Each structure stands twice: as C-alpha cells, then as structure tokens.
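User: Quick one: structure for sequence A, then sequence B.

Assistant: Sequence A:
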Amino acid sequence: LGLFLDLFWGGPMGLWALGLLVVYGTMLIMRIFMSGHATIINFGLYAGSVLLAFFTAYLVTVLQTDNAPAIIPLVGQMLPTLLLFPVADWLMQKFDDNDVRFM
C-alpha cells in the first residue's frame, strides 16, 4: 500500500511504506490496549496512529528536501483518514472476540 501511495502521489519511493511500517510496529506494541476497551480509547489510539504516520512522512520530507511542507494540506489529508474511524471501530468490534492465539 505504501509503495502504491508513493507511485500515485509521485512522492519519494519508500516514504509511505516507512510511515505505515512505523505505525504497524507501534500498533504491534500497543495491541493489548486495543482489545476490549471503550470506543474513546480506540479512537485515541487510532488518532495517535494517524498522527504518527503523517508526522513520520512530514519528518522524512523535511529531512529529504530541507524545506518544511505546508501544514494545511497535511491536515487536509489527515481529516478524511480520521473520519474513517467508524469503519475501523466496526471492524475491531466485529473481530474482537475471535481466536486469542493470535494476540
């Protein structure tokens, strides 16, 4: 998915793959907090992961170009991602009580 986003948006190769891998690694560590908790805690973790992904992409862009990108378009990309939380929460609730061997 990350490499597709790099090709689609014309960014540097590996930018979004790195951002998504950082979030994936963080969520692997935080997965114990995601299961069986209130929706507000899940939203906090989701929002934190979105912020982490976009901050990683912002930081890599700043380090690569020595120029800070505009913040308003960054927030414009973050908002639709945050609005997808009900779908992510529905998936977490649906698969919350599945096989615990994978936890």
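Sequence B:
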Amino acid sequence: MREVDAFPASTIKAEDLELKDAILTIAGVEMSEIGQGADKEIKPFVSFRGTTKKLVLNKTNFSRIVHVTGQPDTDNWAGHQISLYKDMTDFQGKLVPCVRVRIDGVATTPPGPPHPSESTDNTPSIEDIPF
C-alpha cells in the first residue's frame, strides 16, 4: 500500500491530474482553514459534484473561475463546469507542480440536460480521474 492510498488527501493535488484534465461541475464554495500553527490561513475551497475532494483556491485560480463562469460572486458558481490541469509554478525560488483552472474549452454556463439527439463526446470527466 502506498502512503497516498493509506492517507488520501481531501484536496485536489497536481499529482491527481498527471495524464489529463479533469472537467468538474462546481457544487459550491466555502471558506475553511488550511495549514497549521502560524501558517494557518482561511481560504476558499471549491467542492464538486461526484467527488469529495476540494480545490483550495489561490488568487490566480479564483480569477480564472470568474473568467470562465462570468460570475464574480462565488455564490453564483454552482452548476458551472471548469477544467483543471497540472501546471508548474514558482514557489520559494523553485519550480513546483500546481493545479490550474483552464480558461478555455469548457462550458461557461451551467449545463442543462443533454438533448436526445446529441452524441456524447470523449471529454474526460470526474470518473476518469483517479481520485
């Protein structure tokens, strides 16, 4: 058993997105504590339909979700789809993996029920992501 299997994370990590994007539907946003001791902060956490893992938001991803949804208020994000992908960022002088919100290629309005004549596509979904 690997450590990640014995102690699964409650947040989405870059390692969860090794091979492909995850297209997820936002269920809601709540403020929650992250970190320990003097490093403890309160940050927005995005929850998604179909998974218990959440995305901890930084300013970059917050701005990207506003761009994708067209909604500056997190109260209006539920039902919108976003696409997450693995990227790299500078952190304390080192290049490290991170999770980013893709600003193109996903629905900008909450999806409705599919029309019976529409064919399904092969876009990866939450079921395809190993978390």
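Residues 22 and 124 are 6 Å apart (CA to CA). Residues 117-123 have pLDDT under 50 and may be disordered.

User: Thanks, that's what I needed.
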